[in-house]
Design a protein that fits this description.
Eight copies of one chain form a homooctamer.
Chain A lengths: L1 H12 L1 H7 L29 E7 L1 H17 L5 E6 L4 E6 L7 H15 L3 H7 L18 E6 L2 E9 L4 H14 L3
Antiparallel strand pairs in A: 2-3, 2-5, 4-5
Helix pairs in contact in A: 3-6
């Protein structure tokens, strides 16, 4: 069965991946040390059958995508904010471009959140409100064009949101430029 | 149709892990459909070089750990709440046990959040405040005994927090019972 | 010592129900004791005429219901979050299933809250908006299918909410599976 | 075993209690009906083994206690706010007395919340911070004198909080006057 | 000119009124004194020309009104929460009646807030949305029947809100019963 | 008795005062009318025995005080924010001066809130923490020098807060300049 | 190229402007010093190519505009709140006029925020909802007449919002009076 | 058409800076247009005497600084989040690096906010708490090493915050690397 083999790979080969996504606590003895020495951590490691892997963008990829979206907007003479959120809806990158209005950053984050939550561009999702108008009352969402999912094997791994252009369709073009940058 | 083939690929490729952590958007034509048909999603899949894997608990494992912590508390005659959060600090499981006070659930979540953030039990982390007292002002944290990290290869993959017993040391014993359940 | 005698009284009186829903404060002398000895509590017990009983689910029942809802979703290939709230709208159980989107947990909690508040499935409640559209502006609510009340003698004692499936009708099927598990 | 007998009592005698704490949804055909006719609720009633009873104050008792606390303050020439919260920390009664400052209502609610959470007067709880100083970082709490638990058979069933007098000791005297009113 | 005469009266006779609405800080030497002795307050009193009087309910009146609204609901077999807010929208009295749902208290407060803000019953205000639908996006408001203003000389001095009955019209009847109690 | 005479005066002369503090709802038939014609308000006026008067600053006075505080800061070469809150803690005037840091406005509001709540300068109140350290955990407060109460007949009618200067003592000098402007 | 010349001006002439908008940290040795001596700040000054200038109102201008809006309302017998926000949406001036309802201040701030975000009066923006109804879900916005942008060379540098009059059209007249005061 | 001429004026006047920081509203006729054509904006331009310039980083510079800080951390084997805020405390860039804990992003933003508010590194500011311990209660701040101001002519124009390394001193080294990147 596949799932087991996945776990096997976790055992044999994913240490680097784990290192890549970090450990978080390393001792230090600095005077203002936030996490001083000798953590005395729990010794018991969890079993592999208990683990699942999830896929996200590296910070390098997320930054590249956000920059590509911002560049596309700048080229079009638009002043926008760009957000990249991971599959958990957590912001990985936020760029508030020159001249973007104060409403833009949170709007961008919510479009990205919405796109990754339903794995579809927010321009599509906004149309679904005709059938289920209260979808837009779900906390954290924004059903305005300008959000696009980033997919790996068809599954959503991130969302890119853009806000600040005079139309949501323009915002979404820029978001798609960000997605496209990840396909190269 | 595309979406089905996506699932097929999920089954056959290395992306079983992706299946494990889910897809999230499947079409449906129900009357009150929240995510109706034909999402017209972005076609471009992101490249592997852009991707990083992260490790977390399955919901089965997280539930088992939370239940084990609650059982340990009940056996000791204590009334507690138990939380399991993932590496992103997002709650996977919350159980407010019978008779737990109103302060217990959020206290449990914060202890779990704190433990996974610094990859150490909160009893240890509370001692670190002697050197860096303002650590406890970081939003979302609680520096009280009762939180324990769950580790895979030494890296934090989840946090378990317990609150409601008359002492934090008791709370942490129960949290550790939850961790221990994952080692079996 | 006082506190022990309190427990003794709990054991011997009609307050077994109270014991079931817990006491909350028991002394302990641990070094990091959160609630140390000798509370010197108020001596006056309130009279029975001042008291009302309310009914809720045990944590065992609430967990079983949530698990049944999640199992039903998993069987149907859906990735969801499940919440069980009590009559006061307080979350007793939250399970964020594997692959559930970031919007799912709060959506599930709000559906459960809405169902227990009006003692009706949220699919029914959503229809009521035709007459009273501003109902949906009440804080904490979500008028999307997926929430179901748990009743005892016809009165609401809990709410179960599910979110994450492509349609609210599916979500509500899973929620009802959770309710049904309590009838066995 | 006690727990079973509790359930038995639930079966035989608690119907009135259930009625007393309400149903919440009754049909009505008013033009702006918030909860219109024929809820089509779930038919399955949960089993008794799944239920637990909890004890709280009636609104009459809670109001009487709050009024007694306010009267005691007025008699002493003090301007205060009074809050009564239930075992879940939810406010049942809030009175902002004439001349009470803007900080008083939330302060009163938090003192009440803290008292019911640990089943002890907040003057006692404040002393416990010497051993566990971070207890006061638990959300919703306030470790200032002025809160008192209401007990039934030694278990906390409500909390009364008073704020606004020049000293917390005075506030707590008034809160205790509220508790005492329930013993008559 | 009227305004001056008002100020004159303030000079000659309103000291009692000021006392009635309180001072807030009186010295005390209790061990846990919240406001210890010798405040060394600013010596300069503001001039009368700088002052304006505003009118509100006494806490006795506000409590009587809230109780009357709750009694009316109880008589009708409904389980509601009642709130009385002052002209500033600040809650003076909150009663969560027996059996009221968890959504009721905040709903009642918002209805009261809305009624006092526009000096009209919320059933009337809800109709105004036909012309200005975005009024309901103003923070703190709720455009559902159930709120009624309390007036003195036609000006709003308080708002009473009721929530929890199956229709807003019923809620508003109870709120009006609260208003009527102040006319006796 | 004083209180009655106050009410008598309310009956005979306070209409202008009521007008002064506003009515709030006047009909209008504008296209986007927020509060359209014929409110059909409740006819019953509340009785005088139910009413209490409270004293506050006019907006003219509050603005003058805030401006005086800001001018004093500017003269001293400091960049600050100034807030004036009423006896209910509600902001009447907020001025974010040129060059004031982003932390200044809320800091100024909280200092003003704290000063009016305890009717004392915040420099005094900060000293009281030596005896009652947890006072500072009351929501909305800030125990830093820079807040001063405005008094009428010794009772607090407003608070002025200043933030942004390099020391709280300087901030409080500016706040006192604001208070002093009301004595002229 | 223009941008370079801007930077050149920054080099040669903007020091005064920088002084005008403040430094924020000056040493002081007062007893309660918030920012004591010897900041030991980073020595490296950023390069001019890294800098952009943005334009806002002086606090004097912002206050004058707010006062003009309030005066216009008072002249019309209306009781309103007025807010002036800068290009970043941050409140520079808030005036809660005599008799303004509790809903007015935040409503005014949101109208001002909305006007500056889209550089158009909110009466215009409200019409745009016909095409893009979900625009109004962007956090911080309010699509009700009463907000007006302040422009310099056509670009938005501030927003003025007014709330509390019986129609949004009236509110916007007052806001425009505030804008007009800046043209003199 | 007006809007074009506006841009022309931007090009020719001293307002190139305005162009640099953007305009924000340009018409568009897209189907889902967020800001459709013909805004009919207020015609009155504010006078120069009313305007003040403020200095900030371009998004290019802010991104470069954030990237430099992140690179320094990565080189040192640390997993951190980096934030760059402007003089108003608004986030311009946020990067949550690979493996950074869930507490890191908000911690980084608050350190950056604190550094720009007082124009000093947070390691310095933390020492100031010895004299003024309640400074740390100002909302939005965090007095932990890891924040550094960006200065132009000695005035703060931005703040850089880093969080996630085992000591605040390490975090601050990385933040300073970000500042240094702007000096090249």
């Amino acid at each position: 069965m596949k799932k087991t083999s996945v776990r096997t790979r976790v055992l044999t080969g994913t240490v680097a991946a784990l290192a890549a996504v970090g450990v978080g606590a390393v001792s230090a003895s600095a005077e203002t040390a936030e996490t001083p020495a000798a953590p005395a951590a729990v010794k018991v490691d969890t079993q592999n059958k208990n683990l699942a892997q999830s896929t996200g963008l590296t910070i390098d990829a997320a930054t590249r995508a956000a920059q590509a979206a911002l560049d596309a907007a700048t080229k079009a003479g638009q002043h926008v904010a760009v957000a990249v959120v991971d599959r958990d809806g957590v912001t990985r990158v936020l760029l508030k471009g020159d001249g973007a209005g104060p409403q833009a950053p949170e709007s961008a984050e919510r479009k990205a959140f919405t796109a990754v939550s339903w794995n579809a561009p927010t321009s599509e999702l906004a149309k679904r409100l005709a059938q289920a108008p209260n979808l837009k009352d779900i906390p954290g969402t924004l059903f305005l064009a300008g959000g696009a999912p980033v997919q790996a094997k068809g599954a959503p791994v991130a969302g890119i949101g853009v806000a600040g252009a005079p139309s949501g369709d323009l915002d979404e073009q820029f978001a798609q430029a960000g997605v496209a940058a990840l396909a190269k």
